[in-house]
Amino acid sequence: MAGSPLPRRAPPGPAARASPSGAALHPAAIRPRHAVDPGRAASAPMTAPPVQLPATAAASGRRTGLILAACCVSQFMTVLDASVVNVALPVIAEELGFSRDGLQWVNSAYTIAVCGFLLLGGRLADLYGQRRMFLCGIALFTAASAVGGLADDPGLLIAARAFQGLGAAVMTPATLAVLGTTFTRPAERARAYGAWGAASGAAGAVGVLVGGVIAQWFSWRWSLLINVPIGLALLAAVRWVVPAAPGRDRVRLDVAGAATVTLGLMALVYGIAESPAYGWGDPRIAGSLIASAVLLGTFLALQARPGRQPLVPLGIFRNRTVSAANLVAFFSIAALFSTFYFLTLMLQQVLGYSPLRTGLSYLPLSLGIAAGGFGIAPHLPRTGPRPVLLGGLSMAACGLLWLSAAGPDATFAADLLGPTLLLGVGMGAVINATTNAATHGLPAHQAGLASGLLNTTRQLGSALGLVVLATVAGSRISHGLASGEGTVDAYSAGYGLALSTAALFTAAALPAALAVPVRRGSRPSRGTGHKLSA
Residue 480 belongs to what domain range? Predict the structure, then answer.
């Protein structure tokens, strides 16, 4: 069945070009290869910072401020790079000679590398030192950005994006471990986590804006080359202000566990992320999912064997608070990053916004995320994460339902400003509270592991959430077109239904939030504080 054309009201900008041909019933019909794809921002790391860590050096005043700034800038950079090149994909394809199928790997290489190596990156920070791995991650990310920005061959650009993802996977857990060793007082730590969470969420939202500006006024290469001066400045700053923390070199790395979990996660993310394009029955998708099941099953069996030093001590999952925080993260990030994708399509294909205007429309959402993360920080040490999670999830669900009602005649002031602010404030609070709860009761030497675990959960949630919402929206669009509904109205209804489904994802996180303790000083949840092996 031939694919239906996109609404003609969309501007001729690169992010609004027609999707590849395909059946309207298929989710790929609403996933244009050359469209702005903020859903890919899900690949970006959003890890939990550590708790209960001793300070390694007396750092105060200006030094702690510089440490916080370095951690937030690095996080902003890695999240931004997940989506900033999307607007320029048509230009990249023309200049470097990409095929349509090959072009998707500019994003997929980054996504798969981040998710596959993140758990290992967190464990490396625990074993070999946070500062050391932070510097290694920055150096690798910066070098890969330079190679990608200068690439004149499709294969070289894809390889550079994969190494960017590897650098991000090493850098991010170490970054949050550094914050934990620097900010030891609960109130200070909550504010630091709020700043980090605001940087994460805001970068995901403003990636569209930055990409639009670069695509319109500069070369696509600057979407990668801009990381080089920032990365060099970060290297100098981290070497200067971050004190060295001892690693645990006497503990051997679980090589078999690292290999099986990394390959298993990469296969799983590939299968989920590419299923809308190829279908679940395609041998590539089915084969990757089967391989993932075998590899991850082998990994769990290896970790459960007695007498070994596992990569992931399975006792971590007996901590009910940690498990609940990961469930909240799964559903909330599935909703948030899927919203980035469908809101962008709605703005461009239904309301006719240009890429640059679309990016500017994300400013209230970005500011809301920052306000929610910072605003709740002073209260977290007193209340604990649970009431913050319940309130933030409820606000986000209401914002999504409100946003889903916007139709073809919507205006920014009346129909978009309010719900995006509400969604942003709610999600900002949830990100901060989740990062506080995610390492509840864990020892200091598992800080990076807990960060990597939470980030991996978020990657999987965002990837699976986008697939589910794409299926829902594609079905509604096809039904509307088949029944004679106008093209703009059909797409508007499909995207609105996707946003309503995102609200259901947010609501699904509420029961898990109830398992998180009310106060930090209250009696720990059952399972908290288990002694875990290294």
Answer: 34-254+309-513
The string of DSSP codes covering 50-78 is: P-S---SS---THHHHHHHHHHHHHHHHH
DSSP annotation of 438 reads T
103-135 pLDDT per residue, tens: 778 888 888 888 888 888 888 888 888 889 999
In the block, residue with structure tokens 């002031």: 413
Has residue 530 got a pLDDT over 60? Answer: no
71 & 188 share domain: yes
Per-residue pLDDT band at 85 (split at 50, 70, 90): confident
For residues 399-417, one letter each, b for 16 or more C-beta atoms within 10 angstroms of the residue's C-beta and e for the rest, the string is bbbbbbebebebebeebbe
| Sign of the torsion formed by the C-alpha atoms of 93, 270, 230 and 436 | positive
The b/e string for 418-436 (b: 16+ C-beta within 10 A; e otherwise) is: ebbbbbbbbbbbbbbbbbb
- Reference 509, options 448, 449, 426, 436; nearest CA is 426
Domain co-membership, 43 together with 184: yes
- Count: domains in the chain: 2
Task: Give the pLDDT score at 245.
Answer: 66
| pTM as predicted | 0.76
Instruction: Please report, for residues 333, 348, 359, the alpha-carbon distance to residue 47 in angstroms, rounded to integers and kept in the order given.
Output: 12, 31, 25
Place of tokens 């890890």: 47
